[in-house]
Amino acid sequence: MATKIRLARGGSKKRPHYSIVAADVRAPRDGRFIEKLGTYNPLLAKDNENRVTMKTERVQYWLDQGAQPTDRVLRSLDEAGLAKREARNNPNKAKPGKKAEERVAEKAQKEEDAKEAAAAAEVAAKEAAEAEKEAGKAAAEAPVEEAPTEETPAEEAPAEEAPAEEAAAEEKPAE
């Protein structure tokens, strides 16, 4: 006969209270059991001593007879020092589902679009600032720039150099 050490649920709706029992594996969860070994009250605080109570000698007896504890009972036995529970590793448990991954991808796309828009606005602002600076410089340097533009045709035309020399000659007698 295969025996399990497991929890049998009692208590009212939304107020669970469990009995730790040794039962035949074929018996229903809350049905027939061989022996009551303790209690488990999940509503109490984890550090409360009355959360899990066990008859340690009887639990050890059933473990020696080959009874297999369920995972929840094995956790309690490990805390009591009666059995060793190996830590399990489920790397897929922490992975988000498909919907969560889609939301993360959407959020990343929105952030990327916002960064691009901010960068484009920053570039446009810089260009506008540079254009304003250039316009300000052009306004401030306008008389200086006009003088070379007037001189430029004089420099470009070699025929006009003679009249420039005549103008210089005319200025001397004026002095």
Which features does this protein show?
18% strand; five-stranded mixed β-sheet; S16 Ribosomal Protein, Chain: A; 53% helix; 4 helices; 175 residues; alpha+beta
Describe the structure.
The chain is α+β, with helices and mostly antiparallel strands. Among the domains are: 3-80, Ribosomal protein S16 (S16 Ribosomal Protein, Chain: A), CATH 3.30.1320; 100-141. Helix content is 53%, strand content 18%. The chain is built from 4 helices and 5 strands. It has helices at 56-64, 71-80, 98-156, 161-174, and strands spanning 3-12, 15-24, 35-40, 52-54, 68-69. The protein has a 5-stranded mixed β-sheet. A hairpin with a 2-residue loop joins β1 (3-12) and β2. The longest helix has 59 residues, at 98-156. It is rod-shaped and about 105 Å long. The chain starts with a strand and ends with a helix.
Kindly summarize this structure in a few lines.
By secondary structure, the chain is of the alpha+beta class.
